[in-house]
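Support reply, case 0932

Customer input (verbatim):
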Amino acid sequence: MAGLNKVVSNYEEALAGISDNMLLMVGGFGLCGIPEGLIQKVCDTGVKGLTCISNNAGVDGFGLGKLLEKRQIKTMIGSYVGENKLFEELFLSGEMEVILTPQGTLAEKIRATGAGIPAFYTATGYGTKIAEGKETKKFGDRFYVLEEAYPKADFSLVKAHIADTQGNLIFNKTANNFNQVIATAGKITVAEVEKIVPAGELDPDQIHVPGIYVNRVIQGKFEKRIEKRTVRSN
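Our regenerated output:
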């Protein structure tokens, strides 16, 4: 990796500097658009005590579920956890702290982090446990809850369809999901991609995340596992 060329040749280089007790943001929705190889490498490093911000925690044995198996996540901040039995066990046993956040609020807190916005008001959660201990304010005839942005992640791990060598990213349809906002919210953002092209080859109007947000790009290989297979009976 030299100059404006942000392409790295291996996962060791992609995750250089990762250590225990860091804050990670990880893109994806279910198993759609998850950085599979980067997650596996985090698992292989054995780092522990992680605080992880992601919409969900993968499934048992895949995605962030691999980190749960090795008890690498200390605190999980997410929105949906219904596809992971181990997640439930770790939460109920007290082995892992869980902070559930409404999905839209989660996305906006991440977006605010990347945009440098310290906090914002949202009507979501007013009058519920979500609002406990938080400032509320009335605008017009409706009450709102003050939600703070997250700290910058030590590492943001995202998956993209195409990147150029300068780190400009394009996502494929719904695989955009949380990846776009998470890419902007990291001290170090690593993009695992399906295809890398030379700088200047991407149409600027089609770029979802400018390369200024991206520190490292690695060519990935993806299993693209189906989260829940449903078929008709004969």
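We compared this against your earlier run and they match. Two observations from our side: Residues 11-118+151-219 form a domain with the Glutaconate Coenzyme A-transferase fold (CATH 3.40.1080.10). The longest strand covers residues 153-164. Please reopen the case if you see a mismatch on your end.
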